[in-house]
């Protein structure tokens, strides 16, 4: 097979040669071979109280291989691409132990299209720049009477190549900027962060928000147990969604009996005002991409449309196994991680409003979302940086209160979304107003 040439610079000649060797060697022993090679550079600065403990640069590289032989799939990865022979041998041995399944082939050749979705060449890992970011957060935090516990800032660039024995070659580049700061005032803490693929995060605003949360949460009051309207910030909302609702949209969980939404296609599963959309072209998302972790072109996926469940997300393995079509939702866990079903940029669409004009409890963060039952959606979490709002203004901070309920049921009656959104992991989310939620107070 004559393969197309890589369009890489000189420093990628060794990588190209390694990939060709892997594919050639792998084709002798397996029906198909897939190579995923990632390299990256990052610079990190950390803050302890008000002292920068260090600003270090590091280089990363990872190689992940997948082989298919007689419907048996084997995978292996290594942090040393030069050790590819041992990695390939491990993948082949993994395939020998795997159970056979229906398999209809890896993606074939396809033209790359458009510019890189989440790459900015101006995002350059530089020690001086990350120090400036950390100092900017520190200056922002000085606007409130708090102490800094810790903070960090990081700038990274990555280059990714995906190739397989069917002739597919894809190249991508990614940049990442992240920062976060934790503050404290007596027993009250506050944490804020920002993530982007561009240099568009204001460190001063991140530091000021972290300090604001700690300062204004001081002197909280108890509230009685009862039913309240609750406004969840993007962070709090994202944590609860990640525990059960988003996993329930995975085709793998649907077919293995681990999704409450199984068999509900075409039925209403949440407030008719809401739509959940995975939009890999969204330029705000840090996981947005032109192709997924297997080389399948990505597309906008309308999972829930005006409250009605329309589809689930699939990768190739799950799609072949259950007679479905991949939706281009294969994601890699980490630089050289294995393939799983995931989302590139989950967004929430619905009516935008001033959702704090009416009385409500605003919750910036929750503690214990990881204990949410992934199948039933039942949860009980502690509120962090919560405030009682009356007449559109915060009346006092709330202390030692719990929010309990069911993730699927809490989405049944909502009261609008905020105009502002935030990048939270694989999502870009607004704040959301939920009606009649159970709050357990002191």
Characteristic key phrases:
PmbA/TldD fold; 8 helices; 2 domains; alpha+beta; disordered N terminus; six-stranded antiparallel β-sheet; 19% helix
Describe the structure in your own words.
With about 450 residues, this protein is of the alpha+beta class. It has helices at about 15-25, 85-95, 125-140, 205-215, 235-245, 250-255, 315-320, 405-410; strands at about 30-50, 50-70, 70-80, 145-165, 170-185, 190-195, 225-230, 275-280, 300-305, 310, 330, 340, 345-350, 360-365, 380-390, 395-400, 400-405, 415-425, 425-440. It has two domains: about 10-205, PmbA/TldD fold (2-Layer Sandwich); about 220-440, no CATH class. About 20% of the residues lie in helices and about 40% in strands. The chain has a six-stranded antiparallel beta sheet. A five-stranded mixed β-barrel has the order 7-14-15-17-19. The longest helix has 15 residues, at about 15-25.
Low-confidence stretches: 1-12
Spatial strand sequence of the major β-sheet: 3-2-1-4-5-6
Mean pLDDT: 93
Class of secondary structure makeup:
alpha+beta
Largest sheet: 6 strands, antiparallel
Shape descriptor reads globular
Instruction: Kindly provide the radius of gyration, computed on alpha-carbon positions and rounded to a whole number of angstroms.
Output: 24 Å
Give the helices and strands as they follow along the chain. Answer: HEEEHHEEEHEHHEEEHEEEEEEEHEE
Number of helices: 8
State which percent range the strand residues make up. Answer: 35-45%
What is the straight-line distance between the termini?
71 Å
